[in-house]
Amino acid sequence: MTSGVPVRPGREGRRRRRAAIALTPLIDVVFILLVFFMLASRFLDERSLTLSAAGGGGGGMEGAMLLEVRAEGLRLSGEALTPEDLAARLEARLAERPETRVILRAGEGVDVQRTVAAIDLAARAGVARLALAP
Amino acid sequence: MDGDASVLPLINVVFLLLVFFMVAGRLSGGDPFEVTPPESGTEGPAATAPMRVLLAADGRLALDGEAMGREALLTAVAARLEAEPEAELRVKADGAAEGVALAALVADLAAAGVREARLVTTAPRR
Q: Residue A50 and residue B118: Cβ atoms within 8 Å?
């Protein structure tokens, strides 16, 4: 530690003298600042993912796969699948045609959290071009 | 000088803590309503785009901390993009908001000229 505190063991007659500069106000202010920053700061581990809108350029719908997130489950090109099967299908398709676009459509009663979970699933399967359809 | 010497380590530690909180924390920017971003396993860099669109769980919208209606928001975004065409945009949507509302918002933003929007997420809580 380079705290600059001289350590003198065995020194006799440790007597507290008045500091040349009053330290108490300084400590007060620093503590108030510390408490302010502790309370005002956020420590959420924020991330982000890219959202693009379907139909806004970047190629047509030709050869694109439709991933539907419905209240009752996931559907890929109209077929109800479990998340594992869906990931396997996507991977198989991407192995054939790596440029496959995936259009994601959220149904009624599906919240953003589930939509994001579906985006994660597609991203893990290797989908690079995903668009959100209204 | 022993009176000073015993206080110095305390000040050192407190200053270190102060600097840590100043650097590591981010001041919350006073959102007009509570928005809890969805959790995501996809690791993207934290979005720092200057334009920030908020979507509340009940569908209310805000741009840069100012609550406004859909039309006003799209007009404001289009005006900002006219001034600086390369300006990026991040969307902070509540995890409980309707997926349909998010998709509609992204489509509207794309129509207003936003090339790419980034959705703010948080790391999954374990």
A: yes
